[in-house]
Amino acid sequence: MSDGTDTGRYLRLTVDLVVEVLDVDALQAAALAEIRDPQAELDDAERQEQIELVNSDETGAAALQWLIEPDHVLGLVEHVAEVEPREAMLGVEPSEGVLEDEDDHDHDHDHDHDEPGHTH
Fold this sequence. Notes:
By secondary structure, the chain is mostly helical. The protein is 35% helix and 0% strand. The N and C termini lie far apart (48 Å).
């Protein structure tokens, strides 16, 4: 490989997880503590922006994003000594409480839309 990267060693892990927020205030307080931690590596403007984002989000999604680490997710995997998180991008959004499989997978989008003879 010309770039020296061994792509066979990297795996992309996709997890859909629905959680119920029992106490939004407690969730927000925990997130605010993380944001205010000096190790959060935020400048004052970024810190204030994140605080406002967490405080204004009544669903708790913005707060939850601050509390999930790739290492936490790997706790779900056996043999974690064999796996090291390299990069993560996390999205948290409100849910109806069930996984919506059809909307989450690109290969399903064309599956049952606009098929001849198919009515909704």
